Description:
By secondary structure, this protein is mainly alpha-helical. The chain is built from six helices and two strands, in the order αααββααα.
Amino acid sequence: MAFNxxxxxxxxxxxxxxxxxxxxxxxxxxxxxxGYAPDEELPLAGYATLAAVFTGGAGLFALWARRSGRALxxxxxxxxxxxxxxxxxxxxxxxxxxxxxxxxxxxFTRRQEVISASEVTDVPRGHGLRLATGELxxxxxxxxxxxxxxLLCGYATVPxxxxxxAAGLTAATVSDWLQYAWSFTQQQVDx
Length: 191
């Protein structure tokens, strides 16, 4: 079950999707996005801040790599790409959905429900950067780019260690799928 901000419950600190107000003469509306999405509260400045942090981090890494004289990989072999992809998947789900990582999301989200396999659905709360960060942390798809960026930086600088970490996360992913397969098989036998 993926996070959908349009279906999120109302936040006691303020509505996630407030009702629209009349646009003013400048074309603004009730949302930070003004005329862009007048029926939704979109934290565009928060999104821009997060995009700037991501882009700035990538730029600083590139600058550091260039100044350090490190040779970056000219390609990523298919097996490493698989490991990095599976590790990105698992890490994104761990951060966005796992009960144990709730402490990371708690300042920016509110628990909506507990779902299967000890996962939870959190909804973002607050306004501005806090809301944008909550949307990022509650969505494994959104986190994927951030996690992949971090893993690729690791792969470029310490490939052996990054492969080892990615292999562990990939093993956890395979274990998850085997658990689901076992549960499905058990349900089929019981029915």
